[in-house]
Specification:
The chain folds into two domains: about 40 residues; about 230 residues, no CATH class. The protein has nine helices and 13 strands. With about 300 residues, the protein is α+β, with helices and mostly antiparallel strands. The C terminus is likely disordered.
């Protein structure tokens, strides 16, 4: 009689209701978890061309140095898809501002977290001993050569090997980081922006925001960093760095950057994934959520 009484207490209506609520809660949690994982899972997309296929000679610009980062720096960067090039402007004598331009391009895709976008001049330059003077965001009009505007506002142009490429437009939002180098009395400026899923994005905060957009199943972003400066004789002789970033004049730096961008950006864009993946409405951008209830039941 005692055991029957205890059994009735254990399986009382209140107990059964509590167990039922717990089961529903666990099932609901599984559904939510599945939906969350689906919403924020990002598929990787490969480059169409490796970044190191960008021409060594393009227009008046000649590649004179390519930097390979140590493995420890690559681990901090979070990818091995990058180039760090120094181009010489053959029209400008060595020793004059604008005689060289530094180019850094880095590529991320898939579930590589957008925290990687923290590798921007505001952080990296400051960590290298440069003093921050100012940070600005503005739009630059880039006159791409032999370009025509498409109906959707994109720009079509031809790269050096004759391939047609499209760019998001001729108006590019950029961030300008103005700095003072150690021991220098003149400020320098480096400009940067991102290609993000076939469009331009200026800041790392925008990258993070876009990354959280669940409608984007396939994700890539590529930082493009440009710093016009002065080429010293040492670089041609193979001794020392031989490059001083900045021109001492912000407007001149912008002019030099825009001209270089008109040559180099189509070549960079030719390396990035095809716009059709993001603009063509294909399966890669499917936005309807999966049947997570059925999926949870099947795997339960």
């Amino acid at each position: 009689m005692v055991s029957n009484h205890r059994s009735n207490q254990i399986f009382s209506p209140a107990f059964l209701i509590a167990v039922g609520l717990l089961v529903v809660a666990l099932f609901g949690l599984r559904i939510i978890t599945s939906a969350w994982e689906w919403a924020f899972h990002k598929e990787a997309v490969p480059l169409q061309r490796e970044l190191n296929t960008i021409p060594r000679q393009i227009g008046p610009y000649q590649l004179i140095r390519s930097e390979v980062m140590p493995e420890s720096v690559e681990r901090q960067l979070g990818t091995d898809k990058y180039i760090s090039y120094l181009y010489r402007d053959t029209r400008v004598p060595v020793g004059l501002p604008g005689s060289a331009v530094s180019l850094h391009v880095v590529y991320y895709t898939g579930n590589q977290e957008p925290v990687s976008a923290a590798h921007v001049p505001e952080i990296c330059y400051a960590g290298s001993g440069f003093t921050r003077v100012d940070v600005r965001q503005r739009e630059l009009e880039v006159p791409f050569r032999s370009a025509r505007e498409l109906e959707d506002g994109r720009i079509e142009t031809m790269i050096q090997d004759g391939t047609l490429v499209t760019l998001p437009g001729s108006l590019i939002p950029v961030r300008e980081f103005e700095f003072l180098a150690p021991g220098s009395s003149e400020t320098g400026t480096v400009l940067y922006f991102f290609f993000y899923n076939a469009r331009y994005v200026a800041s790392r905060s925008e990258i993070t925001f876009q990354f959280l957009d669940r409608s984007s199943r396939v994700v890539y972003y590529s930082k493009v960093e440009i710093a016009p400066g002065t080429l010293t004789q040492d670089s041609l002789a193979g001794g020392g760095l031989g490059f001083v970033p900045g021109t001492g004049d912000v407007e001149e730096t912008r002019r030099l950057a825009v001209e270089f961008m008109s040559w180099i950006l189509p070549e960079i864009k030719a390396c990035l994934p095809d716009d059709a993946i993001f603009l063509g409405g294909g399966e890669e951008n499917e936005t309807d959520p999966p049947d997570v209830v059925q999926d949870a039941a099947l795997t339960g």
